Amino acid sequence: xxxxxxxxxxxxxxxxxxxxxxxxxxxxxxxxxxxxxxxxxxxxxxxxxxxxxxxxxxxxxxxxxxxxxxxxxxxxxxxxxxxxxxxxxxxxxxxxxxxxxxxxxxxxxxxxxxxxxxxxxxxxxxxxxxxxxxxxxxxxxxxxxxxxxxxxxxxxxxxxxxxxxxxxxxxxxxxxxxxxxxxxxxxxxxxxxxxxxxxxxxxxxxxxxxxxxxxxxxxxxxxxxxxxxxxxxxxxxxxxxxxxxxxxxxxxxxxxxxxxxxxxxxxxxxxxxxxxxxxxxxxxxxxxxxxxxxxxxxxxxxxxxxxxxxxxxxxxxxxxxxxxxxxxxxxxxxxxxxxxxxxxxxxxxxxxxxxxxxxxxxxxxxxxxxxxxxxxxxxxxxxxxxxxxxxxxxxxxxxxxxxxxxxxxxxxxxxxxxxxxxxxxxxxxxxxxxxxxxxxxxxxxxxxxxxxxxxxxxxxxxxxxxxxxxxxxxxxxxxxxxxxxxxxxxxxxxxxxxxxxxxxxxxxxx
Length: 510
Known about the structure:
Helices cover about 25% and strands about 20% of the residues. It has an 8-stranded antiparallel beta sheet. A hairpin with a 5-residue loop joins strand 6 and strand 7. It folds into 2 domains: about 5-255, Purple Acid Phosphatase, chain A, domain 2, CATH 3.60.21; about 310-505, HIT-like (HIT family, subunit A, 2-Layer Sandwich), CATH 3.30.428.10. Helix 3 (about 130-145) packs across helix 6. The chain is α/β, with parallel strands linked by helices. It has 12 helices and 22 strands. The model is unreliable at about 270-295 (pLDDT under 50). The protein is elongated and about 80 Å long. Belongs to the CWF19 family. It holds the Pfam family CwfJ_C_1. InterPro entries: Cwf19-like, Cwf19-like_C_dom-1, Cwf19-like_C_dom-2, HIT-like_sf. GO terms for molecular function: RNA lariat debranching enzyme activator activity. This is CWF19-like protein 1.
């Protein structure tokens, strides 16, 4: 049985005409009912004094967007100043900048891929441009997953070049319109809906296939829709309303139904080796994308070589990571997995550190399971200098995994935060590029919840949820500072925990 459809509005270039847009949205909602979200592609901000004055009214709270609105980044150098960071953030209430590129997934499971700006024509890229590295970082983790079928929605400002092939002709100059990089992106991501703007035109292409007939099993179709500028004098369509059930909860047979007007894929490559060459270029580019490990700005309490580390809390030391008893832990077996070198968050880790961290996670799951406990992990990349992956055991007889998930969701909502569920095939790095503040939970079912921190965030949120009456029922232990032990007590507890964990410690075997 399919879930309730999500009601979505998509909009073309707003160019600062916020009141015109939102008045139109309110009129539509008054007539047809509430929509769940508004997605804006193209240039959202304007450069005229009138546009800037209008934006100021939203910044000061005089006016408010009537719907959750998600926008792309600058499509020209003139509007870059309106974005405080290349990373996504809430600009004002109900208006959120998605970010440079990434995957946005709501609790419903609706998956939206996005790329801001225009294709860079030279190096170094200007602030309003995306690069091949941006697209590689978005695409590779998805297409390398054998279960990947596509995304629900793709948002780009530029059109994909050649999208009109085999389809109806748009009213644009096809010699100059669009980006080949966006075309390649659309081919790889197989969106069910793809929205773009910037050309001042409205164009709804006939849906196209994402498979080769008689050679591949049927896939869903893609609908490409380009939207015009808000309040354009020619009255071209700039708003598009539709209902969508997330791919992950759809009946597969319904998902792959082919409409009568479906066409061939405009981006299909005739030569097989050309396809392989394209895939190889993504793979090679992915190998080149490397983040330099940061160095601590001052004394670090968690770098193992640091004199500040409380080494009496260490349980196990691997090649790249180590395990430590949590100071002021929620329970006696509450531990931390930490990188030996200095990394701020999971998304900064090199591949070898990630691999060893996974080994520690697996060992701890087995350890807890032997004691009738489930393993819950969380990370807060906010007001922290060194990655601390918190690992907390929860007795199986206290609650179910669903209870824990619900507790996180409910307590997040109470604090006006929306935890998103991350699909298994989505790499956290695509949702939270390095430097992005976030909170992340991994349940024992391998379900993952994520919140991109936008403003203030309760530092003890993870502990507060697990300590609540619904889970561990130890609310007085929510703050680690209230759970401190003497050094002698810590040494004794750590020694006991070290001995208990030893049979599961792969580092001991090595």
